[in-house]
Each structure stands twice: as structure tokens, then as C-alpha cells.
Amino acid sequence: MAKGTQTDGGVAKGAHTDGFGKSGVENIPDHVGREDSPEFRRARRTLHRMVKAAGTQWYGPEPVQAHHGGSIWLHDGRGWFMVLNEAGCEWSAQFCADPAKIDKLRQNAARVVAGFPDTLDRLAALGYDGATPLHTPVTDERSLRRFVDSVWNACVPIPAPFHTGTISATTPHAAGEHNYPKPITDIEHFRRDDFVLFVTDPITDAPVAVTPLGFRGSGDGRVRLAWAPGDHPLGRRLARAEHRGQAVILAPGHPLARQAFELQG
């Protein structure tokens, strides 16, 4: 196998936090070349208040960053929770976004929120105007920016490693959604603790992702290659296999399979 390239690991440099009173910590996402809008700053402050009230979060506890991932925050009378829209618009993607298509996301969010009538009043109690971006049609640059930076899109609460991080020897679980496919990063949040999703190719030191072929106790020690960098030999092998409608299966004795199950003894 030819040598490939490796991305240096770690959480993106430059990320920092600002405190605000006793209600939590406000994270400043580290996006190069981005100037946070007033709309986003208001939404982010509200996010931390909702996270504090909601308690345990799917992606992990505070400190969290606000990810433009299609958030729809809801209150059902018992507490805050979040669901995801059909798509999320990243901050940088707004500049190529079709307002009419973003408006379809707004309409979808509005239909969801209509099923939870406490939501807008609860947001208002937190000092946030959720009604304006939710109910104003997206027709131009101003209305598009307002919706994209609102709690109806920009407030998926993700700790920095799972937002902008990269896998390395020192950060083996920092699978940031900006750097790895979401179907793979999702696995990191629901896998068994003793299964290693991201393993290291011993020849190139590059991280790749594998999944088991059988349930626990099946005795099947093989793994399926789930993801590898596109310019990596394993990435090219995976692309060729998928083009043929096939999978890349690695035998139990393969170094990547052994790494995947090494915590299971």
C-alpha cells in the first residue's frame, strides 16, 4: 500500500469562550473569515440558556459551540429539546443559497413549531424573538441571513471536538462534523464504548472508520470499511468498491479489525 497523507489532529486553533453572568459559557466558533452577525450572537446566547435548562445534550455537555446544522428548538411544556430540519445551511453557504429554497426550510420549521405552541412564548421569556425569523418569508439577502443565523438553523449545540476537530493520536474521538461525513460522525455518539470506530492505518498513520459485520457475540471479527480520506489508498479502494455496488470487508486478522475490537479483549 502506497503512503498517503495525514491531517494533523486537534481542535481548531483560535476557539475561545466568553462568560455571560452566571447563566453559562458562550463559545465563539472558530470559523476563519467569519464575522458573527447580531442575529447569530442573540441566537447563540439563547442556545446556552436552553442547553442549561434542558440538561444533558445528545452531542455532549457544555462548553458547546453553535453549529449551523438545521436546528429547530422546541418546548413541549416539560422542557426544551431540539430536532433537525431536512437540511442545515452553514454560515458560508448562505452566499450561494437560493432564498426560495431556504424558505422551504423555514416553512418546514414553522410547521414543526406549530405543533409545540409553547415554544415562541418560551423563547420570548428568554429574551429572544423567534417569531420574526420563523414567520418572515425568505425572499432576499436580509431575510435569508436572519433565518440562517437564527435558532431555527444555527443552534445545534456541539462541543468543539465534534464540531471542528480532527482525529489524531492525541484526539482520537475529535470527529468534527466540518471534517468528516455526518453519517460517520453520528456513529461516534451511539457506538458501544468498547468499539473503536476510528482506527489508524499502520502504513500511513491516517485515521479511517470501520464498522462490525455482526452484532456482539456473533463471533464475526471482520469489519467493513465505512470511511477513509478520498485521497488515501483505502479511500480510493472504497470508492471503487462502492462504484461496483460492493463493500470493502477486512478479515479478523487485519490490523484495522484488530484495532476496532481491541478494547473487547
What would your notes on this structure say?
The chain is elongated. Helix 2 (99-114) crosses helix 5. The protein has two domains: 16-158, no CATH class; 165-264, no CATH class. The longest helix is centred in the first third of the chain and has 17 residues, at 38-54. The protein has a four-stranded antiparallel β-sheet with strand order 7-8-9-10. Strands 1-2 form a two-stranded antiparallel sheet. The chain has a two-stranded antiparallel sheet with strand order 3-6. The relative contact order is 0.15. It has nine helices and ten strands. The chain has helices at 38-54, 99-114, 119-125, 131-135, 141-148, 160-164, 182-190, 233-243, 255-261; strands spanning 16-19, 25-28, 65-67, 71-75, 80-84, 156-158, 198-200, 207-212, 223-227, 249-250. With 265 residues, the protein is α+β, with helices and mostly antiparallel strands.
Main sheet summary: 4 strands, antiparallel
User: Tell me, what's the shape?
Assistant: elongated
Q: For the largest sheet, list the strands in their spatial order.
A: 7-8-9-10
Estimate what percentage of residues fall within beta strands.
15-25%
What Rg, in angstroms, do the CA atoms define?
A: 21 Å
Report the span from N to C terminus: 28 Å
Q: What is the oligomer described by this structure?
A: single chain
How many domain units?
Answer: 2
Number of helices: 9
List keywords for this structure.
single chain; two-stranded antiparallel ribbon; 4-stranded antiparallel β-sheet; 2 domains
Outline the fold blueprint.
Layout: E1 16-19, E2 25-28, H1 38-54, E3 65-67, E4 71-75, E5 80-84, H2 99-114, H3 119-125, H4 131-135, H5 141-148, E6 156-158, H6 160-164, H7 182-190, E7 198-200, E8 207-212, E9 223-227, H8 233-243, E10 249-250, H9 255-261
Antiparallel strand pairs: 1-2, 3-6, 4-5, 7-8, 8-9, 9-10
Helix pairs in contact: 2-5
